[in-house]
Write a structure and sequence with these properties.
The complex is a heterodimer.
Chain A lengths: L1 H44 L10 E6 L8 H16 L2 E5 L7 H10 L4 E5 L4 H7 L7 E5 L8 E4 L3 H15 L4 E6 L5 H17 L4 E6 L6 H13 L4 E5 L1 H14 L2 E6 L10 E7 L6 H8 L7 E2 L16 E3 L11 H15 L7
Parallel strand pairs in A: 1-2, 1-3, 3-4, 4-5, 5-11, 6-7, 6-8, 8-9, 9-10
Antiparallel strand pairs in A: 10-12
Chain B lengths: L1 H75 L2 H4 L6 H15 L6 E6 L4 E6 L15 H9 L3 E2 L3 E2 L5 E10 L6 E10 H6 L11 E5 L5 E4 L13 H6 L4 H11 L4 E5 L6 E10 L2 E11 H96 L4 H32 L7 E5 H16 L6 E7 L5 E5 H19 L2 E10 L2 E8 L27 H11 L4 E5 L6 E8 L2 H13 L1
Parallel strand pairs in B: 13-15
Antiparallel strand pairs in B: 1-2, 1-6, 3-5, 4-5, 5-6, 7-8, 7-11, 9-10, 10-11, 12-14, 15-16, 16-18, 17-18
Helix pairs in contact in B: 1-3, 1-8, 8-9, 9-12, 10-11, 11-12
The chains are: A alpha/beta, B alpha+beta.
Chain lengths: 356, 594
């Protein structure tokens, strides 16, 4: 009996101690696991950001990196991503429109983290296939599509075109200016024309704005003949938004001693005495908005619509479009005109003027 | 004898095999040593040549790089760029001109001018290549370096937008007025095409070049085009060279700015690698290796060495074959010789035996002759002694003289016989051949013999019977008479009292003479040796008569033999002599008539 009593009191103490130990271990484990999971989650979501392997990015376009404008912008923007964020970027240009879906799928299959597609045409195919690759983020530049893993950047190029239209109108002797676009079916193209026209008419409501589309982005001969044709109609300032074909437009202006505006990149170097200025998509800031949300791990299907900035890589504004320097025309363009242009820029930035 | 020659042959064969193995071994050893020496010396020459050529190639490349830099400097110093006009027709024109100038010397596929922000303003590209105006290359290391140091830069390898692997040579455009940075002039060099001008960079099977940048990236490599753009120490290249330590060490040393050479084999054949940094001024900007498959070095000499060893080998084989043939011939000769020696030995033995017999017979002859000579001498001496010492009665005196006479005659006959035997044995018995009638000869001889023995054998009858009386033969009258005399004397010795019958009978073209007695006959033991010397049972014969008779008859081309009479007691002797040719038929006819 004694033995039993002794044993039972010993057993009771033993059990109580055991319960304490078990409870303590459980609590510590739960807290530990919670912390661990959060840490792991953070690790996974922060993958490739500050630590670990850099993001693998594919930069795809149907344009040509060699076009000195639109394509060159893309390449430069990709290089900016490399140098600014340290990500790995693989480039591919000259993708034909029918091959877009196949190309994107190919890169998605290779487990690229982010696929940037430059060109409006890429929107629909990407939207269609994006569900098949939920772990890949797709960005369409000049796109108007969005989904859980698809974002678009649709810069308000019409704001810059407005400034160029106004400048042309102020400088034009014939009060006739021309616009030559690539393929009409691109909605941004029409918007750019509209902005250009609004700017011109804002300065001089009697200005005549010629409008022409090539149905082509690459053929410089087509660009040249369209340019010559508009010059014949009296245009003494030509704005092209026709990528490679646009170089033909500049060529035509150079041949006939009229002036031209460059598109997307500073194209003064193509014809320093012809290209007065250009509207520039700033590669340094083109993808900032979207990579900000990717870095914040806050990617959602958004259509970003960045507008003007006062100068290249300006930190004052979020915009990504600016007007190029005048180079040799700096001395030729009267100061009041230059001031007027600066004023208009400020008005747009301040939303005093809304380009529709 | 056989065993001994077998051993000798075995020994000979083993010696020949050992000599052959030794000479072949020696031949191959010498050949190997010789080839090794030749190879070593050729290798040394090739190494020396390749070291020199490597140096000269790298100097050549260095000088071309300096040339490119000087053209870029010209461009940077041009008035337009100095005025910060970095684009336009005039700039295009001067860039075109410089591009052509560069390409007349080396392979440059792009000449570019960037502004101070690193954006390409002008890009003159080779035909078929795209130009990339407005592309921002400010992030490239070589651009940063150029801008920072305002010094020319020889870039590491990089892949261009079009996927081609290149190096860039830059020259900063710096204002000559105030030294501020305006932009950069750049020459782009496609690495494979550039280095191709200095050697093979495409075929692993001949001597090829390998060029590195300062980071060890492969700019051009004859071993495999796929390795261009890969780092030498990266996984892919290391897998290709099987992590070859010698090559890794060599390349480390090269990238450290050192010259050197090494031999190695990473599984694709032994190679000789000579290396040298490519200097611009004193600074190594790129690095060069010249690689040769050592097999190639030896290819030319291999055929020479091969034909030489074939020559030597066939010489040796020829010599061996000749030796083998010689050995076989010697062996054949030896066996022939052996047969000959055996034959000669046998002949000699036979000759020796016969000499021995002759010797024995000679000794016997001398013994017998001495004895035979002594026998009549004693009665002669006794007779002479009697005649000298006493007064003999005349009758007795006649008797003694008769004894002396008889014995002296016998001695004389004996001497004659011995002389004849000597003649016969020395082959100097000469016949005085003449035509004679044998019948007459026999008749006369018998008559004469009868006179001789009339007092000794008083009861002996001698008869001659012949169907023919004209028996013409060619012969020696004296000798044939001697034969007859011998036969009669022989018969009378064994007959004493009785009769002797002589007959002659023509048989074919010979005459056969028979002497038949009624005596005791021939002892059968003696019969086979009857006609040899000193064979006699007679107490008074010399034992030479029948031997002489036989030789005389044979010298006449006839034969002589003897037999015992089957019916009667007594012996019969026969001999034949050829008849003279011209009388045979005649005599035969006569015989036939009778």
């Amino acid at each position: 009996m004694k033995m039993v009593n002794y044993n039972s009191s010993r057993g009771y103490l033993h059990r109580k101690f055991l319960i304490h130990v078990v409870v303590t271990i459980s609590i510590v484990s739960v807290i530990g696991l919670y912390v661990l999971f959060h840490y792991a989650e953070a690790q996974i979501s922060n993958k490739s950001l500050e630590t670990g392997k850099p993001l693998q990015i594919a930069y795809l376009t149907d344009g040509l990196f060699s076009d000195a404008g639109w394509g060159a912008f893309g390449y430069n923007a990709g290089q900016e991503i490399i140098s600014k964020y340290g990500y790995d970027v693989t480039f591919l240009d000259n993708v034909s429109i029918p091959n877009i879906e196949k190309t994107v799928r190919n890169y998605a299959e290779k487990k690229y983290d982010v696929i940037i597609a430059q060109g409006y045409e890429w929107g629909d195919p990407i939207l269609k296939l994006s569900n098949d690759y939920p772990n890949t983020k797709f960005i369409v530049f000049t796109g108007l599509v969005k989904s859980k893993n698809v974002a678009s950047i649709f810069p308000r190029q019409q704001d810059a075109a407005y400034l160029l239209g106004a400048l042309a109108s102020m400088l034009s002797k014939n009060h006739t200016i021309g616009f030559i676009g690539g393929d009409q079916k691109y909605p941004n193209l029409k918007k750019i024309y509209e902005g250009y026209k609004q700017g011109a008419l804002y300065i001089n409501p009697k200005s005549k704005v010629l409008e022409r589309y090539l149905g082509d982005w690459d053929n410089q001969t087509k660009g040249r003949s369209a340019g010559l044709s508009q010059i014949k109609e009296g245009a003494d300032f030509l704005l092209h938004v026709a990528d490679n074909a646009g170089q033909g437009v500049i060529q035509a202006a150079k041949e006939k001693g009229v002036y031209a505006f460059g598109a997307v990149s500073d194209q003064n170097k193509l014809a320093p005495d012809t290209v007065v200025t250009s509207f520039i998509l700033d590669p340094a800031k083109a993808y900032d908005s979207v990579f900000d949300v990717i870095r914040m791990n806050n990617f959602t299907g958004t259509i970003f619509t960045p507008g003007l900035e006062s100068s290249k890589n300006s930190t004052a504004e979020n915009g990504m479009i600016y007007i190029a320097p005048f180079h040799s025309f700096q001395k030729k363009i009267p100061a009041d005109i230059q001031n007027k242009l600066l004023q208009l820029t400020q008005d747009i930035l301040n939303k005093k003027i809304i380009v529709s | 004898m056989t065993l001994f020659s077998g051993k000798v042959v075995l020994l000979g064969v083993i010696s020949i095999i050992i000599i052959a193995i030794t000479s072949y071994g020696l031949f191959f050893l010498l050949q190997y040593e010789n080839e090794k020496n030749i190879r070593e010396s050729i290798f040394e020459q090739e190494l020396d040549r390749q070291l020199k050529s490597t140096n000269s190639i790298s100097q050549h490349i260095g000088s071309d790089l300096r040339y490119i830099t000087s053209v870029l400097q010209d461009l940077a110093d041009s008035v337009y760029l100095q005025n910060e006009n970095l684009s336009g027709d005039k700039v295009d024109k001067i860039v075109d001109e410089k591009f052509r100038q560069l390409n007349s010397v080396t392979e440059v596929d792009g000449l570019l001018i960037t502004d101070k922000d690193g954006i390409i303003n002008v890009h003159k590209a080779s035909k078929g290549l795209k130009s990339f105006v407005n592309i921002d290359i400010s992030s490239k290391d070589y651009m940063k370096q150029t801008k920072r140091n305002l010094q020319p830069v020889y870039s590491n390898g990089f892949t261009g937008i079009d996927g081609k692997y290149r190096i860039a040579i830059t020259y900063p455009i710096v204002s000559v007025v105030d030294g501020h940075y305006i932009g950069t002039a750049i020459a782009n060099l496609p690495t494979i095409d550039f280095f191709k001008a200095y050697g093979n960079v495409e075929n692993i099977n001949s001597q090829f070049l390998v060029a590195f940048d300062t980071k060890g990236n492969l700019l051009a490599v004859g071993a495999s085009k796929d390795l261009v753009g890969k780092n030498f120490f990266g996984n892919e290249t290391q897998a290709f060279i099987n992590h070859n330590e010698a090559l890794n060490n060599l390349t480390h040393s090269l990238l450290g700015g050192n010259k050197g050479h090494a031999l190695y084999d990473y599984g694709r054949g032994e190679r000789l690698n000579t290396e040298s940094p490519i200097l611009v001024g004193t600074k190594p900007v790129y690095f060069l290796q010249v690689v040769t498959l050592t097999d190639r070095i030896y290819t030319t000499i291999n055929s020479v060495l091969f034909s030489e060893s074939i020559k030597m080998f066939s010489l040796l084989t020829g010599a061996t074959a000749a030796i083998i043939v010689l050995v076989f011939l010697l062996r054949k000769w030896y066996s022939m010789l052996q047969i000959e020696v055996r034959k000669r030995t046998r002949d000699l033995m036979i000759a020796n035996e016969s000499l021995k017999k002759k010797d024995e017979a000679q000794n016997q002859f001398i013994n017998i002759a001495a004895h035979e000579l002594r026998t009549p001498i004693q009665p002669i001496l006794n007779g002479i002694y009697l005649l000298q010492s006493a007064n003999l009665k005349s009758q007795k005196r006649v008797q003694v003289l008769d004894i002396i006479q008889r014995n002296t005659k016998k001695l004389g006959r004996l001497a004659e016989d011995i002389l004849d035997v000597t003649r016969i044995e020395s082959n100097s018995l000469k016949l005085k051949v003449e035509r004679l009638n044998l019948y007459d000869l026999i008749l006369n001889t018998i008559e004469e013999y009868k006179k001789n023995i009339q007092f000794i054998y008083k009861d002996l009858m001698i008869n001659y019977e012949s169907a023919v009386q004209n028996i013409i033969v060619n012969g020696d009258k004296l000798r044939l008479g001697q034969v007859l005399f011998i036969l009669l004397d022989n018969a009378s010795k064994f007959t004493k009292s009785g009769s002797i019958l002589v007959t002659t009978q023509i048989k074919s073209n010979t005459i056969q003479v028979m002497v038949k007695d009624t005596g005791s006959g021939i002892d059968p033991e003696i019969l086979p040796h009857l006609f040899t010397k000193f064979v006699t049972r007679s107490d008074r014969g010399t034992g030479l008569g029948l031997f002489i008779a036989k030789n005389i008859i044979e010298a006449h081309g006839g034969i002589i033999w003897a037999e015992n009479s089957p019916q009667h007691q007594g012996a019969i002797f026969f001999f034949t002599i050829p008849l003279a040719n011209d009388v045979v038929d005649k005599d035969g006819n006569e015989n036939g008539k009778l």
